[in-house]
């Protein structure tokens, strides 16, 4: 009953390729059967071999993978294709895969530019296929709980949102050494017009909109390149106007020396606030105006159904990043399998990021960079 | 290149069976191909179907599984059998599997009694096979780091060890309702002579010995049954004499209302101390006599090779219980695969709990229960 | 050897008056001997009586206090006058006290407007007296340590500063009820042109400049009044350009429902970062690019002399807000006593906020409110 | 309206003398007017001078202080005498002070031996005076809240109590150097029959009984001297039987290298648990069987009256050890002042440790040391 999975990108040394494979494996809902793991055929071949794939399903290019798999019998060919390449190599394989009738999992940001994203949206619509965009952090169960609390009005109207994603790993000119991650992420030709804002700012933006249910309407950005000779931004802060008269602040930096990946989201409504951070991902603090703060915990029986659906083990046994990532793959699989079975997927299965999130993410990148270059305070966010 | 895995136990509703499957899947090193998931053939069959197994490899009993798999061709039959049944059903299937030439993964405690464990040790030795005992918590990377720090003498001679495993889930008479977990874990016929001490006290004991490198030599136990009519202990505290003139305290309780599973280990040497707890599993505090406490973190570049070997993703992206569990499966697989390849497994792969830990765990159970019934202060720990 | 202290303001029900008295008492360096505790003579009298003052030293107005104390013999009259009134009543009594030869302790913000602050600076200079401005938070020992680390270059050049002061107590229209604190703090006639930015934003601003050693050069503010009908801002966020090419973000809000007073400061340099928050005031996290985070703690032997000077008890016994406040009073007293003794005060005693901090605080208020009303992104910070 | 205070002990270099003075000063309820600060008259004189006392009220011995103060006019002589000497010098001055009609504040443990404590109890009773024993930790507001929650049955019957007091400062043979604290605290002639158990174990014991309302009925101790050549215990762990069928564990050690003073108390009842630690003294975690843990915080409006009575400032501004200590002095003063005024003190003012706590503390010391030397498991706790 497993979905047959193919992968584009993710050869030896790829961080995110391995993550996708673990996330897809965890729940036994996918079986990796094909791949074009690298534009270097030797790398692709050796990766496939290492992963135990049949040699004839390890391809030298993404075109080969898509076209040859499409010709295999329906009960043998891949059903889902994961694309885990750098940003400039998202659009073309995604388009090709969709056009050949495959469901697609795509790493974020969805494409190299907003224009590409819009074209991909059209392709997707025409194809009738499904697409999952791996904004991992939305997979954390306690963020599902946070979203549920806000959606049900438990905290009243939202007034203020703070989201921050500080990293320290680009505090030095890593890209001038052998760090392949640093090299492509700071290269405008592969990453796009944004560095930190594209890489992690989009995660922060997505999380804010996903959990709060609000939309950014205007923003004011301070965008910096702190490390000399770096070619893209590595630091920024953004004032936000949000729908429903709320406001916010978004911080994203890769030069906060000593920081790991402590994404944090705080949302305050009329009656209380929410505080979540990745460093303590299984805890959601729910703060109240006039009674004690509550510590809600992954897996606890008092949680909402959506939070419990996205958790696997009893409370107190920590679930982490891979489990959050796997929640995206799992929900996507449950949706695909339900449709194969002819019934609509339940709402909690349909809860994974897709093309809408991709489009807004690209619009965020373009708006925030434009604002950074503007002398006006506020720049409208349009899509 | 995946190891073919069979499973005994773990039918629908089994907590630990699902955990074993996720742990085995995570790194793509095992493929579940056969199972006898329940003593109820229907349950076994439907579980196997749900998991997508071929019907002819879903068996009605563990004997069938072992005997029929043994008759399959070498390149098809299972290579490893995971046994995830209640304690009273560990020994017989493990013995049978070993005698038929299979490697075995066994949930803890290893058997129902020390006598069984000793007999299993003999069977294992005679079989020439390998056995992995899933003392999950030893799989956490920061406990590998802790062990490394102590083994290399960074903290001087160990003087004091505190280990505690508080749970709250048995604060009420859960076993009188529909909770199957509670039912067998409080039943002497299925669990053995100990309740909390067998279920979680053995984990605490194992962790203490594994990380410190010390051995318990004498102990003094206060063993209680707090909830009325419960048939086994649900609470206890133990004073410990340890090798090398150290001493310690072990706490294990299932009636600490409101606690989840916050296993915690603290070890103090002449120069400093270590503090780890499952609730913050990716952090190891290293305390020093005369300089600031250090916060060591999973995945950080400054960690020991053994800690890094047992981690998968960059620091700040939390790894949890399933990853720790998967480390046991992974190291066991790396050991088996190396041997299949004719070369000895590297030391970090051989770092998984086995028969020795199983024997000591059973001796712990028998000693701690005996001490609980004794009016003497100290009871010798012998094996 | 105690300094004789007089107090203006701080009658029954005043929060900050009681705080000043406790802070002044703690180290036995001041003795409260006189007061004009309220503009209501009865309140002043009963407060003085409650505090055990001699009736003839309890005055009906600040003018009486200053003028009559000045006529007492030198060995009897007050030496220091603390002014703890609302903002609009800072300037006049401070001016009068200085002109009559008294040292002054003044609550922040220093005056009602920048113009008043500038005039007070001139009065102070002409008087030859000393003034201490109670920016309490700079008194925390771990912020002394932070400042020391940055000043000595341990973290390299500072790149990024985040400071935030979230409160929740004005999430509802408290000022329409009986809350006197809320009433004057949201009243432009008593508080000045700023609400939250004046009340707590100035603390955040002061802390940032004090600890980092940098100066704000330009800023871009989003200033909001969230609670309907409130007359001053209750929320804001500010992008900052700082001297030496650094940048930062300042957040100050009083509508973060459920938050207490968790002032937090994070500063990142080329080699590492610092993280301090009032909720865990005795801890300073020092983060490094390539080695474990250090947990520095109040009172520990490895701290700088300045941090140890501002601490009283052994590590692990928490020191709090009153101790931080008392550090300002203590350092001010040590400075005054040293001068009385004819010798210059040691540097660590001279480390208390004064007129410069007051001027910059008022300039911050005026600049940040102007920026909030501007459509330009950046507004210059001049003084 | 201040109480006139005299002090015995607390000369230059005394840690606890300075703490008593700060605690007594904080609330303006005491004025230090006399002292016999050292058995060395020169030290006593220079300490008194430094503190600004009148020279004729600085005495060369405690006898002088008591006898000469007793001869002063009633409106001038001291009303309360604080005794802050090492343990062997508690009994004689306390007895003398009580017999001369003074109220007494005494540091813990109350005396050198249980026999002395019993004699002191008789003296106290005969004198009609009051005595306050400074078990500081009971002054923390969140422990008042904890006690209140248990006393009102919110958590059901108490089942399990864990209390621990780990320190690291005696990990090395400090007493062989110049550390005066270490010297007397490890000296049987000055400290009594117990080291760590007397110094900090008594605090842990007192806290357990005070907060839980239970009484220790039997105990089983493992008492160790870890550092070679030390003359008293520096480490121990104790199993406890408590009244009302509860049980517990008490840990007290001074060789937990790297630990500060993280006293921690956890109490579990049928419905939930409490968790408090000095390192985060303004937080009380209240855990529940089936709903989220609550974070109760010092100063919050939802707290019990007794918790609020023992707090001074708004929530989020931390209160620490000195404030807890000051709560003892304050409650004692409020009691004495009420009686002077002819009215009984309100219950919250009478909430300070006294002779009963002193007697039980000494019985604890004698019982725990006896148990440490016994081969029987359980030793009865009698008084």
UniProtKB/TrEMBL annotation, chains A, B, C, D:
Domain GFO/IDH/MocA-like oxidoreductase residue range list: 144-274
Record InterPro entries: Gfo/Idh/MocA-like_OxRdtase_N, Gfo/Idh/MocA_oxidoreduct, GFO_IDH_MocA-like_dom, NAD(P)-bd_dom_sf
Start and end residues of each Gfo/Idh/MocA-like oxidoreductase N-terminal domain: 4-132
GO molecular function, one term: nucleotide binding
Signal peptide positions on this chain: none
Top-level taxonomic group: Bacteria
Residue spans crossing the bilayer: none
Protein name: Predicted dehydrogenase
